[in-house]
């Protein structure tokens, strides 16, 4: 079967009524998550994993996995759409990838062109979503074919590269990011060792035998951490909201933004494919690029529509691009994709090169549903922008306690132990303290997901080589991957020593 | 950047790293004939964490004495919400989901902002009953619903 055939099969799965419903719910919740300042895509996806797990409980495993991942991915790219709304209307980004949208978006809103800015953001996001999906369709097969040739040594080095990439760019201090990575890997070793069956660090406590549950830690660190932060440091009351006015962009607006959308999409896609460099970086580079390309750069910062169209396309394309390493190599490049990967593993479905062979309905169903979801988002966002803008006014006093209650319900409904609830609360406090002091938590979660796989591959490789660590450098592919990983860590360090400011990816 | 927190974190992670290295020695040796047992990975990680923590501690000595920004932190609200969440976790199994969720939400709503009792009670009961019936009755999941006498 060729790619087109697989894609058609994917569409037949995406068009099953429950999956259309799941995709719709996903993009709707995602848009809300993007609009609400305070919950980002990471906490949104983490919070919804247990909810989808219960919703899909009656289905066979594979169908359940396809449906859940359709919903969760919908939340992910839906949040990228929604993030622009608050940037434009309130000058407050809903999530970090929309920070640059505030520069020109809010200016446009002040000039009474908020509607045009919002609809251009939606159109740009749609175009970008489709372009990155086409890239995903074209690259999925060749990439996973390459990865199929990989042995344990190559896998070990590839995962190390993924970790290095995420920690090298996350947060302000690389020492702290690396500490978080190592700490995540250490937490991953708790429980029964998969290779030898020996219990490690369990101290005869039964709940520890299966290891610390990834879901509990992710929900605690991200969702509860953010709730605690808002409770402790009550965000400044929101400013006045700009009027939306006319929604449709003018012909001139469309003409001005066509090229930025194309450039933003392509740039965003390629940045998204790189592990570690996520949507925030993509939107940032796109803005700088558009300013350079523009015939009148002095317009930027004063309401240039290209300054909205480019970055908004870029951050959406990046979220599509980030699915490629996740699905084909099994290496999540960002915090949110790490959580998606955790969700797939919960269903006993291993993302990676074998995914397209073993579970084509999950992989292609997801890809096809992303086409459907993007279309839904465009249809939803154009006429309903005014409705979504209303979500901004949800009072925090009701929202925050409900988020705590949802995370309690979610964790308990999946785990059935109070131990996980205590762990959840502890992770919430830890998440707040760590994030506040520039210890990025995304590398920790990524390391927790990848940890067991890294260890297994390392030990399998070492078993093949009779304990010789040289196998990792004597194997050419593995050596190249290790060199790239080291470069990813060393280059920003060297640039910093030379006094250059390094662009950081705060989203994780 | 807070110097005190980073020092404290540096020492805490240093101890965690040490503990990992020491405790890894107690992991039983591998049962199958391979040179690489289940203890190598944790020992390596522990060692790396120790080095990184030392590096962080060294870095804290080079921090400029930063200006403290006068953020008002609302400890009282946070402590009330945290303690009620803790009680929620402790009482969930003995008292059941509906009662504990309702109580937790009501306390938390009122802690966030006093007043509007009717609205708070309405939202809290809608959420606790709604989630329970949707999950337990409609989806057939199992939750401890009400106290068992």
UniProtKB/TrEMBL annotation, chain A:
Keyword tags: Membrane, Transmembrane, Transmembrane helix
Key word Transcription present: no
Protein name: Tripartite tricarboxylate transporter permease
Entry-linked PANTHER family: TRICARBOXYLIC TRANSPORT PROTEIN
Domain DUF112, residue spans: 20-446
Recorded superkingdom: Bacteria
InterPro entries the UniProt entry points to: DUF112_TM
Membrane-spanning parts: 20-51, 63-83, 116-140, 177-195, 207-225, 266-288, 326-350, 362-385, 397-415, 421-450, 471-495
Organism: Planococcus shenhongbingii
Presence of keyword Transmembrane helix: yes
């Amino acid at each position: 079967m060729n790619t087109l055939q697989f894609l058609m099969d994917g569409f037949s799965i995406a068009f099953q009524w429950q999956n259309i419903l799941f995709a719709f719910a996903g993009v709707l919740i995602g848009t809300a998550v993007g609009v609400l300042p305070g919950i980002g895509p990471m906490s949104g996806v983490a919070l919804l994993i247990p909810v989808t797990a219960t919703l899909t409980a009656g289905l066979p495993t594979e169908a359940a996995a396809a449906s859940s991942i359709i919903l969760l991915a919908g939340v992910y790219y839906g949040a990228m759409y929604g993030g622009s709304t608050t940037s434009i209307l309130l000058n407050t980004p809903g999530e970090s990838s929309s920070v640059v949208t505030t520069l020109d978006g809010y200016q446009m809103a002040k000039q009474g062109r908020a509607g045009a800015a919002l609809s251009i953001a939606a159109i740009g996001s749609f175009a970008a979503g489709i372009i990155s999906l086409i890239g995903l369709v074209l690259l999925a097969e060749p990439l996973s074919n390459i990865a199929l040739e990989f042995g344990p040594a190559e896998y070990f080095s590839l995962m190390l590269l993924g970790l290095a990439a995420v920690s090298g760019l996350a947060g302000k201090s690389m020492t702290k990011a690396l500490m978080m990575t190592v700490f995540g890997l250490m937490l991953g070793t708790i429980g029964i060792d998969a290779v030898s069956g020996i219990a490690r660090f369990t101290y005869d406590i039964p709940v520890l035998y299966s290891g610390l549950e990834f879901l509990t830690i992710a929900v605690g660190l991200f969702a509860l951490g953010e709730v605690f932060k808002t409770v402790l440091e009550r965000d400044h009351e929101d400013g006045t909201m700009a009027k939306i006015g006319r929604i449709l962009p003018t012909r001139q607006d469309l003409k001005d933004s066509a090229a930025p959308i194309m450039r933003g999409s392509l740039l965003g896609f390629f940045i998204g494919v790189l592990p570690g460099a996520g949507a925030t970086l993509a939107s940032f580079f796109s803005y700088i690029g558009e300013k350079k390309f523009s015939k009148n750069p002095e317009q930027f910062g004063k309401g240039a529509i290209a300054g909205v169209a480019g970055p908004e396309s870029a951050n959406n394309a990046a979220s599509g691009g980030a699915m490629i390493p996740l699905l084909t190599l099994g290496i999540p490049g960002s915090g949110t994709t790490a959580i998606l990967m955790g969700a797939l593993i919960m269903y006993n479905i291993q993302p990676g090169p074998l995914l397209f062979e073993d579970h084509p309905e999950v992989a292609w169903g997801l890809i096809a549903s992303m086409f459907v979801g993007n279309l839904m988002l465009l249809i939803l966002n154009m006429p309903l922008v005014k409705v979504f803008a209303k979500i901004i006014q949800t009072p925090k006093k009701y929202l925050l306690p409900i988020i705590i209650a949802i995370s309690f319900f979610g964790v308990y409904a999946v785990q059935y132990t109070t131990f996980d609830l205590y762990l959840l609360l502890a992770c919430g406090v830890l998440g707040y303290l760590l994030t506040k002091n520039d210890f990025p938590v995304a590398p920790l979660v990524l390391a927790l997901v990848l940890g067991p796989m890294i260890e297994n591959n390392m030990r399998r490789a070492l078993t093949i080589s009779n304990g010789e660590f040289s196998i990792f450098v004597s194997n050419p592919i593995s050596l190249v991957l290790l060199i790239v990983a080291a470069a990813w860590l060393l280059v920003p360090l060297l640039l910093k020593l030379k006094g250059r400011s390094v662009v950081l990816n705060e989203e994780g | 950047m807070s110097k005190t927190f980073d020092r404290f974190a540096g020492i805490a992670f240093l101890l965690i790293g040490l503990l990992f290295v020491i405790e890894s020695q107690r992991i039983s040796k591998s049962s199958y004939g391979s040179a690489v047992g289940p203890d190598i990975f944790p020992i390596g990680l522990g060692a790396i964490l120790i080095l990184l923590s030392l590096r962080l501690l060294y870095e804290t000595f080079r921090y400029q004495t930063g200006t403290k920004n006068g953020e008002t932190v609302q400890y009282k609200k946070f402590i009330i919400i945290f303690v009620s969440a803790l009680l929620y976790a402790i009482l969930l199994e003995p008292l059941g989901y509906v009662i504990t969720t309702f109580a937790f939400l009501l306390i938390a709503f009122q802690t966030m902002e006093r007043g509007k009792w009717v609205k708070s009670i309405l939202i809290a009961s809608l959420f606790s009953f709604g989630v329970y019936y949707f999950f337990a009755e409609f989806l057939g999941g199992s939750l401890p619903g009400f106290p068992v006498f």
